[in-house]
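go over this chain:
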Amino acid sequence: PARGGLGSGVLINDNGDILTSLHVVENATEIEVIFADGTESPAQIVSTLPEKDIAVLTPSKLPELLVPATLGNPNALNIGDEAYVVGHPLGLYGSMSAGVISGFNRSFRPQNSEERLEGLIQIDAAVNPGNSGGPLLNRYGQVVGIVAGLANPTEDSFFIGIGFAVPIDVAGGAAGLPPY
């Protein structure tokens, strides 16, 4: 986004690769990532999956202790399962919201986009600006999706109860992760 934009991401391997939403970084002239321990690093986009709004970032500097996320199987989810979203909504760093899995194979057109995203997981955990690109977690703390955005029929950019995530098996394809 424009200067000063903020999103979230998921560390997926020991190389330091980070999955995030493409719309968070695609127009950025500079990308800076901040790890949980406070380590800051410039990062580059190394791969994209535009039809799923996914980007892979590689930072130039890694923290001393690198702990990749544990990935789960989104195909094992059921409607009503617990769901958690972690990110930086409205600049509130490290926030978590809880809800449930509300549906599968949903489509949604992000604000300011001509393209519809397909095959998404629908959730009712709160999703707000700053959550995009962050993890959707199952009850075991495993990443099962990458948050794509929120339904906003009023064109407001605040949560009304419907959020969406790209399944991690699809999103991970941009980073060469094996499918489930």
Observations:
- The first helix runs from residue 22 to 25.
- The chain has two domains: 10-59, 74-174.
- The longest strand covers residues 95-108.
